Structure prediction request, 158 residues.
Amino acid sequence: MAEKLAPEKRHNFIHNGEKVFEWDQTLDEVNIYINLPPNVHSKQFYCKIQSKHLELGIKGNPPYLNHDLTCPVKTDSSFWTLEDDIMHITMQKRDKGQTWASPILGQGQLDPYSTDLEQKRLMLQRFQEENPGFDFSQAQFSGNCPDPRTFMGGIRSD
Prediction:
């Protein structure tokens, strides 16, 4: 049932008409997907994930991305992989349930409508996680959706 509430599509970060990366989020994570350039050996790529900063690129060249993050992440449980010509960066949110409007601070922000849809989906993910016997995939909110991180005393930590 929880997979029904997984991100349905990735958001695109476009700069000067070019797709820089795609991204999505869950209650726990923000994922970034970057198409790798052809004919570059995997050992040449690097990615440095810091609590509030992300830097990545090809060794010996200026960074492809070198930006502050919208919100802090847990570096000990964040990582990156290369698979099928895509760099997949998984960053563990420090504040579980927080809705990110973009991974990069001040860049590529989702519009208010898309941000609201993300918040609603994360709220339903929270309900699903806290009540695993129920199916919230068809649930809807009327009016404003509460913040999934703080609603009813906040997210319980196990």
